[in-house]
Specification:
Blueprint (H helix, E strand, L loop, with lengths): L1 H10 L2 H5 L13 E2 H23 L2 H7 L22 H28 L9 H7 L2 H15 L6 H42 L2 H29 L7 H21 L2 H6 L5 H19 L11 H9 L29 H17 L6 H6 L18 E2 L2 E2 L2 E2 L10 H19 L4 E2 L6 E2 L2 H27 L7
Parallel strand pairs: 1-4
Antiparallel strand pairs: 2-3, 5-6
Helix pairs in contact: 3-5, 3-14, 3-16, 4-5, 5-7, 5-16, 8-9, 8-12, 8-14, 8-16, 8-17, 9-12, 10-12, 10-17, 12-17, 14-16
Length: 472
């Protein structure tokens, strides 16, 4: 009897998986906007794909992947520097699985990016596909994943590595925009509360967070000089750290100039402090891909050195390799990779719950002047379903709250960023016989950090240059 009731209970969810986001919310959930719920579901799908990718890099799963018929045969042989594995195929399957899982996710979101071009309101038939039919969309992703495991190696891997590097670079820029918007949102919220309540309390909170980010940035920079440079070498690292420190100080000064404050009152040191910390993170991330291990200690060896001062310095020639697997089953994720994944999750969730009104992200994601930013519309007869209040209110009947197409493009690039981060930005050689870190990944990340600083500088000076445009 219990089994029968369970089947009927499960069957009752099938219509929900084919309808809109409102059906997926339980009665205890607060009434939410359909635009927000939909983005959260897509974000959950992407995070789920990230978790599966991380699992594929574990030793036990890699052992099981070898048993898939044909998955190891006819492929290329991969060897990671400083890693000794019993079988070369053990390294191959982890990378191969991550590439194929994120290939499926990226293809899915890219297809939806094209499908959702020029959607203006929820009345468009394509909006129903975007906001509903979850069962079919999840089934499509799983189907693409299964099929991708049968794609042969060779040219697929080289082409997809280049695509991954380009998509990951673009997502780094998106992260910058989201972080700046997050800082703007905090700054605006605190300023409003200063005007409404106790100004000293909120001014202290604003000053505390700004100081915290700058202190962390200084500590970060000092650690980079200590562990990633040597008196007699590592010239590139010295230049990278010094240049980005100078650039960060410059944009911080520019952000508080009287002319900038006059035209861009929302700018300030809080945003600059976050950008400074993010730039130093990109600098560190770039240096972790250097082929010269004497200038690229593993994070594990740095932590060991900090916790055990008697150990030889982490930047000596006897340091631990940058990639250290937990066993001989293959390459596992580095501790370095979790920093990138953490920033990714924060930015993804923020982009999903951020209100569109008064947002810098809006200027990036809205589809143009035809789009309409709506206020809170949570009442009316249409907000009921079967006599009960709708758990997700359709707030896009008159105009979308964000560009559907660009949102899917962002998720497509995010999946490529995940792929590159989990595989430590390693690239296969021309004959696909090994993967290794190289200077290309270093320069891509360093170039991204400089472009991010230029983009932030442009947001500060643009109101002075383009006086005819509204930047409020």
């Amino acid at each position: 009897m219990g089994a029968v009731l369970g089947v009927f209970s499960l069957a009752s969810w099938v219509p929900c998986l084919c309808s809109g986001a409102s059906c997926l919310l339980c009665s205890c959930c607060p009434i939410s906007k359909n635009s927000t719920v939909t983005r959260l579901i897509y974000a959950f799908i992407l995070i789920l794909g990230t978790i599966v990718s991380c699992i594929m890099m574990t030793d036990g799963i890699q052992t099981q992947l070898k048993k898939i018929p044909g998955f190891c045969e006819g492929g290329f042989q991969i060897k990671v520097p400083d890693i000794k594995a019993e079988k070369d195929c053990d390294v191959l399957v982890g990378f191969k699985a991550v590439y194929r899982i994120n290939f499926a996710v990226a293809i899915f979101f890219f297809a939806f990016c094209l499908l959702m071009l020029k959607v203006k309101t929820s009345k468009d038939p394509r909006a129903a596909i975007h906001n509903g039919f979850w069962f079919f969309k999840i089934a499509a992703i799983i189907g693409i994943m299964v099929g991708s495991f049968y794609i042969p190696g060779g040219h697929f891997t080289s082409v997809w590595f280049v695509a991954g590097m380009m998509g990951a670079t673009f997502f780094i820029f998106i992260q910058l925009v989201l972080l700046v918007d997050m800082a703007h949102s905090w700054n605006e919220s605190w300023v409003n509360r200063m005007e409404e309540g106790n100004p000293r309390l909120w001014y202290a909170a604003l000053l505390s967070f700004t100081s915290l980010f700058y202190i962390l940035s200084i500590i970060f920079a000092v650690l980079l000089y200590i562990f990633y440079t040597r008196p007699d070498g590592c010239t590139e690292n010295k230049v990278f750290i010094s240049l980005n420190l100078i650039f960060c100080v410059a944009v911080s000064i520019v952000s508080i100039l009287s002319k900038i404050q006059e035209h861009q009152p929302r700018s300030g040191l809080l945003q600059s402090s976050i950008i400074t910390l993010y730039t130093l993170y990109l600098t560190w991330s770039a240096m972790t891909n250097e082929p010269d291990r004497s200038c690229n200690p593993s994070l594990r060896s740095i932590i060991t050195h900090l916790t055990s001062p008697t150990v030889s310095p982490a930047n000596s020639t006897t340091l631990a390799p940058a990639s250290t697997p937990s066993s001989q089953n293959g390459h596992s994720m580095n501790l370095d990779d979790f920093g990138g994944l953490t920033i990714f999750v924060i930015c993804l969730i923020y982009s999903s719950i951020r209100t569109s009104s008064n947002s810098q992200v809006n200027k990036l994601t809205l589809s143009g002047s035809d789009s309409v930013i709506l206020g809170d519309t949570t009442n009316g007869a249409s907000d009921e379903e079967d006599g009960q209040p709708r758990r997700a209110v359709d707030n896009e009947k008159e105009g979308v709250q964000y560009s559907y197409s660009f949102f899917h493009w962002m998720l497509c690039c995010a999946s490529l960023y995940i792929m590159m981060t989990i595989t430590s930005w390693y690239s296969p050689d021309a004959k696909f016989q090994k993967v290794s870190s190289n200077w290309l990944a270093v320069w891509v990340k360093m170039g991204s950090s400089w472009v991010c600083l230029l983009l932030y500088l442009w947001t500060l000076v643009a109101p002075l240059i383009l006086t005819g445009r509204d930047f409020s």
